[in-house]
Q: What sequence folds into this?
């Protein structure tokens, strides 16, 4: 007999039928009730068993975490708390879970404890809910771009170029089996690199996306990217996923319109499709925040916050306007900013970004027209000669969620900017070709996928929204 998912059983369409379900024991009580979950949905199916009729060997193995196959009749539940339940006829134990050693017991575990158990934490309600929302967001991203005429293309992971020019790359080295090339002292010869060439793990698929946009018009890439920055913050990972659309003939205004519409639509998608998980995560957050001082609590419950973003216009301000606002502000009555922006041209610190978003505008903010010297080489220089057509989107509680720009399409200007930053033309000869043959205005942006998942789930640490986080401390799993 084929089995059903817990989600299908809870939809009540199979009532009074013989059913089979596979799953893991969440809890069991009074030697009679097993709460079984298979990951298909947040809720468990209650299985009512007559333990006296059950084989003793089977009984002994029913503990939290054990994998079971349960057969029985699906009936309306007499008890409160669930609408249907299974009157069990038979149980097969796929695999037990020793209660003395299985770490995920039916009690509250701290997120720090669960981070050490990245392979098992997905069996908790919190992580299952987060990862279902992550999966839904990922689908919504592909759906949005497909419906809007974009082509999905796969940018390479191994690359010879540093797209951001920030030198934060992981080098790729060839280890030929058990015999890597060695130096005379016996240490590994890292100079051998990728079959004799110097290559890195990509920091961004943007440069390749530009090549594809200049032929397919509207493209996007969505894949893992790598940064060798030694940042131990709750917003940085060494390996993170980035969504990068690139559009030929779009200027900076079009780019801002696209980014805003895109974010709103994917947030709307999860509001429509992940209601149960979002309600669970909202309640979790409210419980967690009860122990925090009022000032540190979120201003809005999670779902209200998501609706707010989906329905309200993002505030657009230039860097220069933002600096004026910061200069004229006092973040709180006693204290000024730790870093005061008194010189035009300085990069914003996260405390400034938070002030603009959370205190001043109280909504997502798109900052644009940044000083050229704090932004990457490929951004389109404005007519003033000192700002570039860059844009960052700042989100409440997150900070920068998107970084993008209109790209420099003029060959000579691009060459000058590269020369000023000592970027050799030979390294990016193919990128320069795009400006020699059929060059045109084009724009794009990169959205940090985990930062979007952080926002969507209300979680506080980026390590909790990616399955197996890679940070300077942790790449164990
Ligand atoms: O601002 P970034 O560095 O921009 C780029 O890489 C551009 N080439 C993108 C483009 O125009 N196609 O990164 C883009 C976004 C950031 O806004 C942030 O959300 C996320 O990627 N991000 C990180 N997320 C997690 N961990 C890190 N270490 C991140 N670095 C950037
Ligand atoms: Mg950035």
A:
């Amino acid at each position: 007999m084929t089995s059903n998912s817990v989600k299908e059983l809870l939809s009540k369409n199979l009532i009074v039928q013989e059913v089979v379900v596979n799953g893991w024991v969440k809890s069991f009580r009074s030697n009679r009730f097993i709460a079984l979950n298979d990951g298909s949905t947040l809720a468990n199916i209650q299985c009512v068993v007559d333990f006296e009729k059950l084989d003793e060997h089977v009984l002994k193995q029913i503990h939290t975490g054990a994998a079971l196959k349960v057969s029985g009749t699906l009936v309306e539940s007499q008890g409160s708390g669930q609408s249907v339940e299974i009157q069990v006829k038979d149980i097969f134990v796929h695999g037990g879970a020793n209660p003395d050693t299985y770490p995920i017991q039916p009690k509250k575990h701290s997120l720090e404890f669960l981070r050490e158990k990245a392979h098992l934490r997905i069996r908790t309600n919190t992580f299952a809910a987060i990862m279902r929302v992550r999966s839904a967001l990922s689908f919504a991203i592909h759906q949005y771009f497909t419906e809007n005429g974009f082509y999905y293309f796969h940018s390479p992971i191994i690359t010879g170029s540093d797209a951001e020019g920030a030198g934060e790359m992981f080098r790729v080295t060839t280890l030929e089996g058990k015999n890597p090339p060695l130096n005379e002292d016996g240490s590994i010869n890292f100079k051998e690199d990728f079959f004799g060439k110097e290559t890195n793990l990509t920091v961004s698929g943007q440069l390749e996306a530009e090549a594809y946009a200049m032929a397919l018009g509207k493209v996007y890439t969505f894949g893992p990217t790598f940064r060798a920055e030694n940042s131990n913050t709750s917003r940085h990972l060494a390996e993170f996923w980035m969504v990068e659309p690139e559009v030929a003939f779009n200027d900076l205004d079009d780019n801002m319109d696209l980014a805003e519409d895109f974010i709103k639509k994917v947030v709307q998608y999860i509001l429509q499709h992940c209601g149960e998980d979002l309600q669970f995560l909202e309640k979790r957050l409210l419980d967690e925040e009860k122990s925090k001082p009022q000032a540190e609590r979120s201003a809005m419950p999670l779902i209200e916050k998501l609706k707010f973003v989906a329905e309200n216009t993002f505030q657009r301000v230039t860097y220069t306007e933002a600096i004026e606002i910061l200069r004229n502000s006092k973040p709180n009555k006693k204290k000024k900013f730790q870093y005061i922006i008194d010189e035009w041209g300085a990069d914003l610190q996260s405390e400034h970004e938070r002030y603009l978003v959370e205190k001043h505008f109280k909504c997502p903010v798109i900052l644009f027209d940044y000083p050229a010297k704090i932004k990457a080489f490929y951004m389109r220089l404005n007519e003033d000669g000192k700002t570039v057509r860059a844009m960052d989107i700042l989100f409440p509680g997150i900070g920068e969620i998107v970084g993008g720009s209109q790209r420099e399409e003029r060959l000579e200007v691009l060459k000058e900017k590269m020369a000023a930053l000592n970027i050799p033309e030979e390294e990016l000869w193919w990128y320069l070709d795009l400006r020699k043959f059929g060059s045109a205005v084009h724009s794009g942006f990169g959205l940090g996928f985990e930062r979007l998942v952080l926002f969507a789930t209300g979680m506080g640490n980026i390590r909790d929204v990616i399955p197996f986080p890679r940070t300077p401390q942790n790449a164990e799993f």
User: Anything to note?
Assistant: The pocket of magnesium ion (ligand 2) is lined by residues 392, 400, 403 (CB under 6 Å). The chain has two domains: 6-106, 123-168+203-464.
